[in-house]
Design brief:
Number of domains: 1
Number of strands: 5
Order of helices and strands: EEEEEH
Radius of gyration: 13 Å
Oligomer: single chain
Number of helices: 1
Strand content: over 45%
Helix content: under 10%
Structural class: mainly beta
Length: 65
């Protein structure tokens, strides 16, 4: 999984898995969901991320199994 924040466009891009995107769905006017050919989620794009998410206070923690 990769998470990218583009400061110049205030866009948050979360890639859950690297795969060819065959369909992009609008969840709302500022949120896009990318799907692969198997129907699984590939990525999520959030526009105006600083207003709609916790960017730049983002933190990540991996919990052991």
């Amino acid at each position: 999984m990769k998470i990218r924040y583009y400061v110049e466009t205030d866009t948050l891009y979360i890639e859950f898995r690297h795969a060819g995107v065959v369909e992009t769905r609008d969840l709302d006017e500022n949120t896009l969901l990318d799907l692969g050919d198997d129907g699984r989620i590939c990525a999520l794009t959030v526009e105006h991320a600083s207003e709609r998410t916790g960017i730049p206070e983002f933190s990540y923690e991996q919990v052991p199994a």
